[in-house]
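Researcher: We plan to redesign the surface later, but first we want a full-length starting point. Tokens attached.
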């Protein structure tokens, strides 16, 4: 019999929200039976979803921020493979530049069993510890060296 962890695939998406002051939105994730970390909104992709739609849906579910009228502005950033995991874990990183500061007023905790709060941070002054995929996305965005065990693929923008 196959070991389920060897055949299971986990496909996720994360969204880096950047405001006009170049601050990023992070949630304090304090989910039962997991170490507490700071992370981007994100989660598992559903069948038949595009990367951008999955990012928009997860953002809405976790923060109440609705970008459904602007989903085409969510840009693919990278593809991340966690090579340390027993399962196949792939995360699609996305990015969205917040052009309307008033949208921040929509953000709230919608899943208190997972998140305690959402806060904006200067990208060079981040809280610790970061959720592993969030850390990878930030280092990629800042062009910083990555820890071992991650395969990161750039997503070329259409010309």
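Model: Full-length starting sequence:
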């Amino acid at each position: 019999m196959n070991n389920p962890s060897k055949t299971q695939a986990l496909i996720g998406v994360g969204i880096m929200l950047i405001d006009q002051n170049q601050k990023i939105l992070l949630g304090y994730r304090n989910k039962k039976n997991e170490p507490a970390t700071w992370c981007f909104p994100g989660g598992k992709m559903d069948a038949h979803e595009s990367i951008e739609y999955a990012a928009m849906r997860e953002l809405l579910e976790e923060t109440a921020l609705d970008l459904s009228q602007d989903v085409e502005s969510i840009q693919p950033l990278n593809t991340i493979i966690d090579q340390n995991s027993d399962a196949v874990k792939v995360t699609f990183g996305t990015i969205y530049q917040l052009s309307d500061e008033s949208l921040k007023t929509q953000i709230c905790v919608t899943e208190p069993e997972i998140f305690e709060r959402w806060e904006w941070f200067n990208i060079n002054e981040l809280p610790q510890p970061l959720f592993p995929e969030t850390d990878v996305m930030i280092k990629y965005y800042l062009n910083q060296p990555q820890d071992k065990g991650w395969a990161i693929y750039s997503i070329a923008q259409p010309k």
